[in-house]
């Protein structure tokens, strides 16, 4: 069953949380599967920091015939985030007011701005109910924010390796990466590849938060005992930096890492605990035991403060990236979550019949 790629155009001005205004925007989004007559089988996916709208590229083991999310049973939607560089309006887009690319002039975004754009797309598609909202990492932050903004829209939330408020630890990692971008002399320019060398270093720094000591020890250890230079681990860092710089840009990396830092579901809601008390969706919070960037206590905190929620721990040597790598464990956790819901509904029905 083929995937379909679309562009959503929002023609009106869009006011951001900062007070800045975008003169309209577009979102690139991907759909996959068959929408049932009741329009009750929609699954919406929110991507991570450097992801795109094609969820089958980076979560390929979850989507497809015979897999957890079968397109014969589900209708899946994923949009590239506002500020992105995979078809949505972002810093490389042309500002219709100046007829020049935004570059550094693109306004700062928060996750609330990004979610607000997603919701305009949802309304345009005519979805009054979403069966499941699924997101990991930055996408998990946005998903949690979205269920708070639109509590009556989402039936289920699957929140993976993410949090309710970005931590000082996470902000420090992001700022260190942005420091690397700032040190690139080209960052002062207004060109498409401004900051690209700094971006390579930023990605190398990020890898240390995405993976784990044991991941590097197993995959990048030298086979012998004679080498004194040109280590595998060193070349791996260079490779990862160059790989990202070949498909991304420093502007979007800067912008979305700042959006991640802004994440705080308790802002103007009386704190995270009060905000979580208003979650209506049935929630599954999933953590990765070796995650250094979004440690398990962050997901467990959410589970503790959302009534009736479920929690699952993934065992992985891959650190934060375990949420992308451990598809088997993720599949089992989500299947159990759905089965538990079905069992609960059956028991409630039997009680009503009595």
Automatic annotation (TrEMBL):
Q: Which residues form the AB hydrolase-1 domain?
A: 42-326
Q: Where in the cell is it found?
A: Cytoplasm
Q: Name the GO terms of the biological process aspect.
A: homoserine metabolic process; methionine biosynthetic process
Q: Pfam families per the record?
A: Abhydrolase_1
| GO cellular component, as recorded | cytoplasm
Instruction: Classify the source by domain of life.
Output: Bacteria
Keyword field: Acyltransferase, Amino-acid biosynthesis, Cytoplasm, Methionine biosynthesis, Transferase
The UniProt record gives the binding positions of substrate as 203, 321
Give its E.C. classification number.
2.3.1.31
Q: Does the keyword Cytoplasm apply?
A: yes
Its annotated pathway? Amino-acid biosynthesis; L-methionine biosynthesis via de novo pathway; O-acetyl-L-homoserine from L-homoserine: step 1/1
- Annotated active site residues, numbered on this chain, are 137, 291, 320
What one GO molecular function would you report for this record? homoserine O-acetyltransferase activity
Does the record's keyword annotation contain Ubl conjugation? no
Coiled coil ranges (UniProt) are none
**EC category name:** transferase
> Can you state the subunit structure given in the record?
Homodimer.
By sequence similarity, the record places it as follows: Belongs to the AB hydrolase superfamily. MetX family.
Q: What is this protein identified as?
A: Homoserine O-acetyltransferase
Q: Which organism is it from?
A: Pontibacter oryzae
